[in-house]
Amino acid sequence: MTDHSLQSLAVRMSAAARELKGRVDPQETMERAAALAVRNVDGCQAASISLARGRSLETHAGTSEAVRTADQLQAETGEGPCLDAIHEQATIYVSDLSTDPRWPSWGSQVAERTGLRSVLSCQLFTDEDAVGALNMYSDRTQAFDGDDHAEALALAAHIAVAMSAAQETQGLMASKDTRSLIGQAMGIAMERYELDAEQAWALLTRLSQSMNVRVRDLAADFVATRTLPRPELEDPDERSSPTV
Description:
244 residues; five-stranded antiparallel beta sheet
């Protein structure tokens, strides 16, 4: 990559991180992440995010029916780059689905049924129960070059962090007491600083991350003291938020 390309990549990754930051719903996070892959990776025309338990594969987000079909065929045939990226290699590239010998059944069916010809799959994240992959497709052969590989890996890292945070948040919000406490803190922030619900949640999660404390603990302290530490409001989408 040239210096200009590296600078451009850094700008796009910063924007991607801001877009994914503070998402509560893992499903919404995955859908936004798939859309980001199409926007950011030049060779990518459609993208999906798949999760697996064992060799069972399920597509949780996809930007087109073609990529959902391609992922489903991996589940049906038991072969494909997504499954291998999830279980064996961090990144797998197929320059021509119709001729690649590694997955003869899957590749030929995908090319015939969807018109897709190349795919780049990146391992997305791992935890105790599930692993995943970001899959980027094109209807052109040899669609992904070295810069695309670098961008895809950087984006996958951001998605992994966002997914982990969203899953943790979802677990927190599942607790009735925690939900009530965070709701109180959001209500106070909305009233005091004239925020909407999304801005209030973004404020709490950003402070939680910057201070390295749990959202629940931050909310409990805010409800008790009615005082927040001073955050640095760097997100331009939150320029209407207060400096507190």
